[in-house]
Amino acid sequence: MLRALIALAMACLASPVPACDTALLLAVDESGSIDPDEYVLETTGLANALESPDILEALVRGQVALTLVHWSGVGKQRISLPWARMTTPEDVAIFADAARALKRPREYSDTAIGEAVRFSLRQFDEVGDCDQQVIDVSGDGRENANRSLPQARAEAEALGVTVNAIAIEINETSHDLSLYFQERVITSDGFVETALGTADYPRAIKAKLLRELTKPVS
What we know:
Number of strands: 6
Oligomer: single chain
CATH architecture: 3-Layer(aba) Sandwich
Helix content: 40-55%
Radius of gyration: 18 Å
CATH class: Alpha Beta
Shape: globular
Strand order of the largest sheet: 3-2-1-4-5-6
Number of domains: 1
Largest sheet: 6 strands, mixed
Structural class: alpha/beta
């Protein structure tokens, strides 16, 4: 019996715990410019993307940690789903179902992207074992409150946190917001995915997740 216990203990020590490749914080815009139908497109688009076979496989293979933050104006940031490790397909399904079921608060506000980034940076203490830390900002407008975006981006750069973005272009033939996100929001190692209108968001979120999870972020 003692030999069996010793052998089991040695086997456990010889089998390393799977490492977490990426801690991915999904920071989703719920400001006043996002109407109720668009909010549903955001939440269902995200949930469906997580459940797609290629993304699900990448999440589990990388033991990715996920959390979902909703944000809008000054002081209007909230953790909608706490950090969860994607160790099995069931973990992904639970997270996706929870995201799909989230209700939007009735109080709408303006757009404080810098505050959203700063709030997001404070959430990574729980997932310090992950190799990469990524904030994924999605929004349909420029910062119009607090004006803290330059400082927030500088803080992310200093901490080694990557900021990527989805720019939801209201004018479906324009890339003005994408250029703004490129110049003002993302870090030097980040990228911008463009959604041509809210209806294109489900495609864009899937493309962005694939890029983040199947290739090195930096």
